[in-house]
Amino acid sequence: MTALAGCSDQTGGGTSEGDGESGGGGSGTEGSETESESSGSGASLPTYTYVNNSQSYNPPRHDAINLIASQFGDLGLDMEVDVLEWGTLFSRVSQEYNYSFATWHTFFVSEPVTELNNLFNSNNTDPGQGNYSGYTNEDLDKLMGNYLAEPNPDTRINQAHEIQKTLMDDVPTMPITQMPQAAIYNSNQVTNWQADLANGFNSYWTMINLEMVGDNTELKGYWPETLSTMNVLGHNDESKHVYQFNMLYDFLVQLNNNAEPDPEVSLATDWNRVDETTMEYTIRTDHSWHDGEDLTAEDVAFTYNYITENEVPLYSTQAQYLESAEVVDEQTVRINMSQPLGPFNLSVANLIPVIPKHKWEGRSNPAQANIQEPVGSGPMMFDYWEQGSEFGMTKFDEHFAPVSFEKRFWRIIPEASTVWENLINGDLNYEPFGRIDRSLDQNQSNENIGTKFQTAPTFWMFTPNERQKGLDDKQMRKALVETIPRTPIVDQILFGFPEPGSNIVSSAFGPLHTDDVTNYKESPEAARSRLKEAGYTWDDNDMLQAPSGN
């Protein structure tokens, strides 16, 4: 096995607990027995590359990936770990499909099947289209299509359960850990942390409900790397951008902390489904852009048509459901769908930012536009961007859902120890990156620190690229899942904060979630037994070989 990059002592002894399983010697012994029975009867498998973020960016995940890669090596795979800067890693996987295994923190939107359809639909397997796992299943495509076209939310519940069962049996991806939503903050400066389902404690709902303590007027956060753009139509959907643009721009529909569309805090004050492919929205008539121009129904219709006509990649998932938008009167916009979409508010209206026509109508390639000072209509306005150092916004006093702080900034701080020093002394007062690590474990009881946790729809995913030999075999994927030490990762690397992964649709989604899915042991022995039954063998060096004829 290729030497692992940067694996810390923290993960060196990671083993499954309580049942005698081992990530090292135990599986090696069993491999020797298998080897003597069926050595050398199949074709060699390729070297597999597990892409990894740098240790400074996310130390626990870096270590967990190294541990998993080591376990795969013990199983008999030829493994290498490629440590990459986060943006490069994200593009390598999500755009280029140039990887074998990937793991990162997956954030599902407020409507899970919309995201699952993007990730696993058989028609989305070309580079950049969303299905980076390469998984195809026409029966699942039909199930997801029926769900998305269904207007009745109660009917969608059983459909969602069938979709989960299929995915958890085929495991094109697997949750390693079910991550919690975490608010980490200086309790002397800010309080009243309320999360929403989609963006946790970085959500619009969180920000408009925060309360500053004493004479504090600034919300002071950080991120481990710089923003790369100010273009709301041209970013790569990384959280560091989403959390800024969600405050700079308004959306037709915003959610409250019960994951319900709430007209009190939305750009639209009312909405109505005219028929299965038509929605109408009543727009606020007393609202303006940050530059003082009136925001009108014309801006909303322009936004939806502009994104569709220009085929903006970032919103391709939403655009596939859009035919056109039109102004009915000065406060009403009608949106015509290209196909029925039952959860339209959660899948589209809650996700497309409304942009000013007078700023964008002259741009022919919006995804590539060089935006230096964005103009939106959200509760915060652009203030400054010192690329590589800091990004700041100020309060938009005229917003219908105002924030309680005057300014918000994010400072670029790669080192977790520096972040915690600043949190404790008040130079920062919240931790938007949400690191679950040793520093949190050691500092959460500090008198200056407040924490709040709740069930989240997010998880650390393990995704194999099915375009590579061997990984298109469901039994191989199941064996890899059984090899991942999910519980030791939770207990030893993440200090017990999350739960071991179990289902791609979290219980945070309420009735859409089901526990009736395939459960996988954490057992290298079970993995070897499964592979042996499927016809795999091990050579004289205990390296895994494909079944004969493959």
Q: Could you explain how this protein is built, in words?
A:
Residues 44-55 have a biased composition (Polar residues). This is ABC transporter substrate-binding protein. With 550 residues, the chain is an alpha+beta fold. It is built from 17 helices and 19 strands. The chain has 2 domains: 43-178 and 457-546, Dipeptide-binding Protein, domain 3 (Roll), CATH 3.10.105; 231-425, D-Maltodextrin-Binding Protein, domain 2 (3-Layer(aba) Sandwich), CATH 3.40.190.10. The protein has helices at 25-38, 59-75, 86-94, 112-120, 138-149, 153-170, 204-209, 239-248, 297-309, 316-319, 344-349, 357-360, 416-425, 438-443, 474-483, 486-493, 524-533, and strands at 48-53, 79-84, 101-102, 105-106, 174-186, 190-191, 211-212, 218-223, 268-275, 278-283, 322-329, 332-337, 380-386, 390-395, 407-412, 449-464, 499-500, 537-538, 544-545. Strands 3, 4, 5, 16 and 17 form a 5-stranded antiparallel β-sheet that branches. Strands 8-15-14-13 form a 4-stranded mixed β-sheet, with helices on one face. Strand 13 and strand 14 (390-395) form a beta hairpin. The protein starts with 24 loop residues before the first helix and ends in a 5-residue tail after the last strand. Residues 1-38 have low confidence and may be disordered.
